[in-house]
Amino acid sequence: MVLCVGGIDTGAGKTFAAAFIYKWALSSGMDAITVKAVQTGNTGFSEDIEAHRRLAGVPRQPEDEAGLSAPQIFAFPASPAYAARREGRKVDLRAISNAVAECEKRRGTVIVEMAGGLLAPLSETVLSADYIAERKWPLVLVSCGRLGSINHTLLSLECAKNRGMEIAGVIWNGWPAPDPEIDADAKDEVRKYMVSAGWPATLVSLPVADSGALPQELPDFSPIFENAAAAQRRS
């Protein structure tokens, strides 16, 4: 199974969300691994993969040493397409697909963290949402309750709906702490949209966590995995 983690924008909390899902999958007995599809603003080892391992409390994995968990890394902190262009390169989409396929073959469960928002350009002609939709990866959208995020969340869901994507669920990042009234209203609106689009209204809220380690008591991500499995059976 491949579960794709995308966000409403840069800084929505995708890395924390992917780490939470990863740790929950491992604690549930799954043989799982995370992959950062494209890492920008980085050289050498992927800082997001490093965060996944640290937060989940596991060492670097064989897939990390083989370069499978971060198949594309670029130094400049920008969209993948632009970061690659500054280096005279292109994002190798086939390399990403092959790395994910190999990780799925080895592990069975792969949690793929994308870069930026759903419409972040991967190439001159391919947006992240196009790439996800083509591969029929069930999507987990990471959002939050800060003022203005409801617009970004619904636009992202609309983008997914128009491409025929499957939404396995929405993960709600609770940091920084939002206004409780705005937060509750945003969650209600997102759930209503998900129902109207024909998706399960699965919304999982993340507890506040620091950058050192995740809490021992994790949210229940089983509905997200069940939705993802059902979506993959339909595809």
3D architecture notes:
- The chain is α/β, with parallel strands linked by helices and 235 residues long.
- The protein has a single domain, classed as Rossmann fold (3-Layer(aba) Sandwich).
- Helices cover 43% and strands 15% of the residues.
- The protein has nine helices and six strands.
- Strands 2-3-1-4-5-6 form a six-stranded parallel β-sheet, sandwiched between helices.
- The protein is globular and about 45 Å long.
- The mean pLDDT is 94.
Q: Please give the domain count.
A: 1
CATH architecture: 3-Layer(aba) Sandwich
So, the CATH homologous superfamily?
P-loop containing nucleotide triphosphate hydrolases
Helix content: 40-55%
> Which CATH top level class fits?
Alpha Beta
Distance between the termini: 12 Å
Shape: globular
Query: How many helical elements?
Result: 9
What proportion strand?
Answer: 15-25%
Low-confidence stretches: none
Q: Specify the structural class.
A: alpha/beta
User: What's the CATH topology label?
Assistant: Rossmann fold
Major sheet: arrangement of strands: 2-3-1-4-5-6
Number of strands: 6
Order of helices and strands: EHEHHHHEHEHEHEH
Please tell me how large the radius of gyration is. 16 Å
Biggest pleated-sheet summary = 6 strands, parallel
Kindly report the average pLDDT value.
Answer: 94
Element layout with pairings:
Blueprint: E1 2-7, H1 14-27, E2 32-36, H2 47-56, H3 62-65, H4 80-86, H5 93-107, E3 109-117, H6 128-135, E4 139-144, H7 149-162, E5 167-173, H8 180-196, E6 203-205, H9 222-234
Parallel strand pairs: 1-3, 1-4, 2-3, 4-5, 5-6
Helix pairs in contact: 1-2, 7-8
